Every structure is written in C-alpha cells, then in structure tokens.
Amino acid sequence: MYCSHCGTEIPDGVTACPGCHASVTSAPAEAAAPAEKKKFFNEPSKKSKSFAAIFTALLVFPATLSVAIDLSFTRTTWAGYVVGAMLVIWVCTVLPALKITPAPVTAIICFMAIVGYVFFIIQKIGIATWLYQAFLPMFVLAAALFAAAVALISSKTVKGLHIFSLLSAEAVIYLVALEATLDNFHHGFVDLRWSLIISCAFVSVIAVFEAFSYIGRINKK
Asked: Helix 103-125 to helix 79-98 angle, to the nearest 10 degrees?
C-alpha cells in the first residue's frame, strides 16, 4: 500500500504515512454483494415445522373420530361441519406460524378458507338464518380464541409445552361450543355427545404436555 499524498510505501497496520505523516485510510471495502432476491415462498424454521406437525396431529384425531362416529351411528354427515372447522382452524393457525408466504398472502388464504367454510354450510343447510344463530357466534369465538393464543404466546406468558396445552384447551372450548351451537340450531336444545368424547382425548393430551413440562422444570433444578 502506498501513500496517496507522497507515494511512500506504507507498512501494514500503520495509521500514518512515515513520509508525510498523513493519516492513512483503509482500503475501500469490497462492493457489497447484491441483496438476495426475496423469495415468494419462505423456508419455515424447525420450530415452526415442529409446531405444525404437532398441531396437525391434534386436529387429525377429532376430525377422524367425528367421521367414524357419524358413519357408525348417525349417518347424517354432520361430521362435515367438524372436518371443515378443523381445516379452517389448521389454515388460520399453522400457515401464520410457518410464515411460508408473505403476511398479506397468508391473510388472504385464511380469509378464503373461512369463506369456503361459510359456503359449505350454506350448501348443507340451504337457509340463511344460520348466519346469526350458528356461524356468527362460532366465528366470534374462533377469533377470540385465536387472538388470545397469539397474545399469550407472543408476550411469552405461555411458552414451551404450555403452548400446546393452551391450544388443546382452546380446541376443547371450540368443539363443545360448536356442538352446542349446532344442536341448538337444528333441534332447539343442547345434547352434548361427540364433543365430550373428543374433549376427554384433549384433556389427556394436556395432561401429557403438562407432565413433560413439569419433568423438564425438575431436571433443570
């Protein structure tokens, strides 16, 4: 390296020219590498993949159990409501967690899932009174549960395995409310059956998560 003022050779690590004592500026840094082009589909993190896998497994159980009970006993295709609700819950919970697509695109997908479920109910029932008697209460409940989960998880009030316990408890609340709403809408009274059976499974799942969480805390001490 040579001085830009007098041309004297400057040894490495020297901050002033030995000839004219002018301050030495570092060599210009290499041009920054061009920014990587932002992809439309992002690679989800390992943590979000784990969450998606466990949450999907939790939803598969009530959906398949509802179909099995419906086909074995009632054969009224009411299980379609449960399966549709599980799909909407999955889309509105797992997709935002994975962050595969940009937030606006994810919001549109969630909205379309809800709209699709609404049209499915319209086709099944064929009347519009369900809007305020069935759909609106369940939509408000789902929005409230989702907002509560996001608030508790983002603030780290609930973390670790407690997150899955929280989501399982919210699933119990939603399924019981769903059956109660549908019973009241169709028959004018509430006769809880399948939601209680599924709730027992979720309570068992919550117990397992809380047990593992407790064991983890003990081992850290």
From this structure: 180
